[in-house]
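thread: overnight batch results

M.L. [08:02]
morning all. the overnight job finished for the chain we discussed friday. pasting input first so we're all looking at the same thing
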Amino acid sequence: MRLAAFLLLALSLPAGAAQIVRGPYLAAGSHDSMTVRFRADASTVAWLRYGIEPDCERVTTMNYATQEHRFPLFGLLPDTTYCYRVFLPEPTGQAVYKAAEGRFKTFPPAEKDSFTFLALGESGSGSPEQAELAAQMERLSPDLVIHTGGLVEGGLDADADAQYFTPYAGLLRRAPFFPVPGSSEYGPDSGTSEGKSFLRENYSPFQSVPLNGLPPHYYYFDIANARFIALDSNAFGGAAAAPALDANSKQYKWLDYVLTRTKKDWKFVFLHHPVYSSGEYGIIEEMNEALRPLFEKHQVDAVFQGHERAYERTAPLAEDSVTEGGIVYITLGGGGRPTAAPREEAAEWSEKFVAGHHFAEGRVNGRLFTLMTYGKDGTMLDILRLEKPAVP
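M.L. [08:03]
and the structure it wrote out:
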């Protein structure tokens, strides 16, 4: 179908036309790129038209016939609002109709020093609590969202719409999500050879992440004056298909390299299993011994964790001791599933523990980082402030 076909538009959804059943949603954002994705109910060609708002039809790009559509957009201007429209053909092939539209803002460039993000984990449930948290998140305008794993309770793609795409539909349409695989993403047989293909069949098809590591397992992205690094910790949890993360592994050496090669003011890591936790599952000693020294060597500022179905924030830590200027470990595992209480009395390094549903909003403003954690009714549960000394 030639581009001239855009001159002939159906005024409404034509009977029998292909429809979008998942999305559109954003992924793999940066200061000069964004990926727009959606799933159709049948294999179909599709067109995406986009431009700097309000000119939403400045550029046209086409995708071949498929159900799983991916439109990577490159060469965008930083810190700029774009709008986009998705067109699908009507059954006769003589016209198209507008199936969806949305807008997004590219990341601020390196010379900017402020941005916002949301963070959550263990959300996949379809529960009323997840819906309440999602409604609170929808009111905010983050540049991006990070997820510490547990997008879908059983890990099945068939449940992803009810537990992930529907609750966050509005937010996914205007802000890219950056997830890491959690325990559930590897399926019920994660520890056996039968579970090796589970993530590839149920999680990978709907993920688009930066291609600088081993997608979708580990990767990094930069925004303004910060670097975020996503890790796959599931080998420590017994997942047979997960990439190793011990000190001799490819993922560990990649992490060391990525931390070495950045001069960003802020360094954030997010992964599924906690390096420090006083919750139900506690600390995996092997994991702590492998990652803690590397994080400290490179002066990581904060580590965002999941797995535990609670919120916990540690004091700044270095070499297992409370130390001014150390790393703060933040567990965000109350995104919608039933929450759990501490396993034992809080350790001396645990500054805050909340056995309740929550999400967090992070704000970086120059050399100040603020993290505010909210409950499902919007009540602030905790606040963290980290400030770096001024550069002489």
